[in-house]
Amino acid sequence: MSRLGFGLVLVFCLTPWASPPVALALGLGLAQTLGNPFPAFTKKYTAKLLQYSVIGLGFGMNAHSAVQAGRQGILFTICSIVGTLVLGYAAGRWLKLGRHVTHLISCGTAICGGSAIAAVGPVLRAKDEEMSVALATVFVLNAIALFAFPAIGHSLNLSQQQFGLWCAIAIHDTSSVVGAAAAYGKEALEVATTIKLARALWIIPVALGTAMVFKQQGVKVKLPWFILGFVGAMLLNTYVPATHAVGPWLVQAARMGLTVTLFFIGAGLSLQAIRSVGPKPFALGVLLWVVISSASLYVILHT
Fold first, then answer.
1. Which of the two ends of the chain, N or C, has the fewest CB atoms closer than 10 A to its terminal CB?
2. DSSP 114-144
3. What are phi and psi of 62, to 5 degrees?
């Protein structure tokens, strides 16, 4: 029965009636009722599908607009990353959490959710349970953000530019950023994706800094190659007119891929995974998220 349910939802996610928030909700519903019959499969392909989907979205974006959006968000990005890491360190000590869990959740909140945790974890030589707790914390908050942010944006009458910037700063994972921004509008999606991917490049200096602070030697830092693919696709769409014929098809395929990605993420959030977070790590995640969301929204509304 669980395999049939999984297959039916997966097929639905490939139709025009599905959307990232709906796909996430269906995945969560499946995980809490019938269960995920293919946990190894969804875990293996979630990151890859997200990366290829992000590259595909690049074929619907203009490099000139992206540079302008990135230029506006760079100072905001630097301040929010540094501020989140410092606050995370202080709050983790106050909650008496382990240094590894504190740093993983802080990096996930500051940069790009699961991708940052996956990159920093090996540098820390973090244990599997520490990685699981940090990932579960971030994914639960991502699920909330995907539904809450568009509603808040509309209630505050945020512009497309404002909402895209807020998403990129305040939502952890790239998948949820793109999903929330796509639900808000095309311009919001362009702004959010560009700033979020520029933000994701901070994985490299933060991972290197982690190796120095935690005195880890002989570790390798992985380059987030899919960001380069996104930039390449955007440049092709801007400067090579021949790509315009296939660009809309690739963007449509990317959006379908993103919808399936959110379904996979939801299906992976079992009740056991949610319970494994525990009160203290979740409290740290919520504290950081509320502070960065509120502070960034205040700045956006008053500048």
1. C
2. HHHHHHHHHHHT--HHHHHHHHHHHHHHHHH
3. -105, 135
Chain center to CA of 191 = 15
pTM of full prediction above 0.85: no
Count of CB atoms within 10 A of residue 275's CB?
9
For 142-169, write each residue's pLDDT tens digit. Answer: 888 988 999 999 999 999 999 999 999 9
Give dist(CA 261, CA 143) in Å, integer.
12
Give φ, ψ of 75 to 5 degrees: -65, -40
The residue extents of the domains of the chain are 38-301
> Which ranges constitute the DSSP H helices of the chain?
2-13, 20-32, 39-57, 63-95, 99-107, 114-124, 128-155, 160-170, 174-184, 186-200, 203-213, 225-239, 247-267, 271-275, 279-301
Q: Look up residue 192 and give its two tokens.
A: 């959010």
The residue ranking higher by pLDDT, 212 or 280, is 280
Per-residue pLDDT of 183-225, as tens digits, reads 899 889 888 888 888 888 788 888 888 888 776 666 666 667 7
Cα separation, 21 vs 298, whole angstroms: 25
Token pair of 204 as six digits: 């490299």
How far is residue 187's CA from residue 205's CA, in Å, rounded to a whole number? Answer: 29
Which residues neighbour 201 within 8 Å (Cβ) at sequence distance 6 or greater? 224, 227
Q: Rounded CA gap, 183 and 188, in Å?
A: 9
Taking CB atoms within 8 Å and a gap of at least 24, the contacts of 218-222 are 219/122, 219/123, 219/125, 220/122, 221/119, 221/123, 222/119
Q: With a cut of 90, say whether residue 244 has pLDDT above it.
A: no
